[in-house]
Amino acid sequence: MAEHAVQALMHAARVRVVAAMLAQLMMMLGLLTLLPAGVALGLGSGPLYQRLGFVALALCALGLLLLRLPGVDLQRIDLQWNEALAVTALAFLLAAASMVWPMMAAGISPLDALLETASAVTTTGLTVLRGVEEIDPALLFLRAWMQWYGGLGIAVLTVALIMRHHASARRLIETTGERLSSASARQHARTVFIVYVLLSGLALAAAWAAGTAPFDALLYALASVATGGFAPADASLAPLPVAAVAVLTTVCLLSAVTLPLYARIPSQGLGVLWRDEEVRALLAATLLTTLLLMLLWIWQQGPGASMSPGMDWQTALGHSVALGVSAQTTTGFSTLEMTALSPAAQLVLMLSMTIGGCTGSAAGGLKLVRLLVLLRLVQLALRRTAIGERAVLHARVDGHILQPDMITGALQLLSLWLALLLLSWLLFLSYGYAPLPSLFEVVSAIANAGLSTGLTGTDLEPALKAVLIGDMLFGRVEILAMLVLFYPPTWIARRRKL
């Protein structure tokens, strides 16, 4: 009886509502495509310019056509939860799929192009391209630009351009794990956008001043602010001056902080960052990862060392900091080949990538707030063993009492994350790949980190490329939204009237 009662209360997503929101999203993507098209034209990349121009025109035309659907007034629509989740998932799918044909200008197959665009828009950074120094610079800009607006969050951009009601906008933002602290979701999205643009300008100016060539500085800046990791060199950060590596590493760390916090600095001072428990956890986790990598280098002097045994401690410390920040912020920049690291060092990086950065930031992973939730639950369980049974205790994070729905959500996401990880890893093992490199690649994809042991490439089996594409998308929209998209009752059930 209970099951029948639940089914009676369910409402399917209204296709015309979803289509109308996606129509505006298509037009937004069309406008975003004009910038790389202009860059391609300026750099003399005719074929790429033509492809991007056609895609931009097609997206805008299709968007205008869908907006003419009768009976949908987005000014007055009350968005359902499943509709918000479906739009979030479709936003990333659409963004990745729309750039496949332009990405094929690199001479790669459609599946490889989809992996590249999915990696870009999810800010993962895994790539099938090799010898990127010889690739069309306009194509490299397209990848970096996709990472930039993917890091900003298509869901947040959708809120700013589509939503009109606070409740609906709140739902759409919260599907990406962000927290609303202001009275208006549209104001929240505007604040995030302004902070993101300012960080991007700072990153560009600092990378350029640190000795990076102007165009390369632009590509590195876009990728670092998005915590994306695409670089205009196969060796990632390794060819850059030490000052440039330090600058970009700092930018990655700044981008992994909850972005709306920066808007409160003028009125509350820099202390507002330190008072945030998640920011303190980010700094502690980054420091711990760095120290562990450094200790492994000191301990393992010899064959299989986590870093080159001939490396002095100052150089090893530099690599440890760069890799520690890259993993914790899920950026994916590297100063060393992952195959040069010991298994212990790779495990440290996997754990760091899994945890990720702060909510409301460009970073991926499970997010630190969920780790804090789990730690508080363990702490609460231990405290209960030492007090009376009738005592009332509450778990708190950042001074706020943890509500049951937040605890349930964290545990659900952790369960889904682990299930996806094990299934993906099993598929890699079934193809005969070594356990540790396979696990590293899967963790990097789901956490949207981008560090790679070299398995991702054009020669990887098509089925495993599809696994990585799915992992990146599931990881970026936090799994539930993708499951809702493919859940039959989302589309097959009675619908509310418009």
TrEMBL record:
Membrane topology: Multi-pass membrane protein
One Pfam family, short name: TrkH
BP terms from Gene Ontology: metal ion transport
Main location: membrane
GO cellular component assignments: plasma membrane
Keywords from the UniProt entry: Cell membrane, Ion transport, Membrane, Transmembrane, Transmembrane helix, Transport
Organism: Lamprobacter modestohalophilus
GO MF assignments: monoatomic cation transmembrane transporter activity
Protein name as it appears in the record: Trk-type K+ transporter membrane component
Localization in the cell: Cell membrane
Spans through the membrane: 17-42, 48-69, 81-101, 146-163, 191-210, 240-261, 281-299, 344-366, 413-434, 466-487
Family: Belongs to the TrkH potassium transport family.
Signal peptide: none
